[in-house]
Design the sequence.
């Protein structure tokens, strides 16, 4: 497990030009057809404290609700909401998934080498990496986080203070547990599961 402390690729994420930020063709992006009435029902079905800073992550097995921490990682939360509202994450794969550790996504190539093209200055904070924690992936450089993030399956205390924690799963962790695992120490996944859609609950 010690080798997994350097959990993100040991090289910088490949920067995408603005025009190629979304590398997946539109036909490959799964979108949820939802009536306004159903969207309103979903919005009010979760008792969240701050709909503007809460995400709805739709996976193949069910809905996951992520509470964001703008007080601890304001720039990351703002950027993530910007990407979510641009539908950047829809259809992206969980390319690296290690049982008992974490599931990583957010690369438009599905390989762990890409991002949105905008690096974020680290906002390391006192939030622990525990089961359900959502944190930013990065290279060896502290200020290299972009669009990739991971969700912890279990407590990962050795990551504390080294990666920017920006959210926590408050509902639907049982569906995160069903994300397809990868093989080997690196956890790369063949035919990986993907994000159906991500939305800011305030927008529903």
Sequence:
């Amino acid at each position: 497990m010690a080798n997994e402390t350097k959990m993100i690729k040991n090289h910088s994420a490949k920067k995408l030009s603005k025009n190629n930020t979304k590398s997946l063709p539109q036909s490959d992006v799964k979108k949820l057809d939802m009536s306004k009435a159903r969207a309103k029902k979903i919005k009010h079905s979760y008792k969240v404290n701050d709909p503007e800073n809460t995400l709805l992550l739709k996976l193949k097995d069910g809905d996951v609700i992520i509470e964001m921490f703008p007080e601890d990682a304001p720039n990351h939360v703002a950027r993530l909401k910007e990407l979510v509202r641009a539908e950047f994450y829809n259809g992206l794969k969980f390319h690296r998934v290690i049982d008992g550790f974490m599931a990583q996504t957010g690369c438009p190539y599905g390989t762990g080498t890409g991002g949105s093209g905008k690096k974020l200055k680290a906002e390391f904070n006192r939030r622990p990496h525990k089961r359900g924690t959502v944190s930013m992936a990065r290279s060896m450089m502290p200020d290299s986080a972009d669009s990739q993030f991971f969700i912890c399956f279990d407590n990962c205390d050795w990551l504390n203070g080294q990666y920017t924690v920006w959210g926590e799963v408050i509902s639907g962790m049982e569906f995160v547990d069903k994300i397809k695992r990868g093989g080997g120490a690196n956890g790369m996944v063949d035919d990986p599961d993907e994000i159906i859609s991500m939305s800011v609950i305030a927008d529903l």
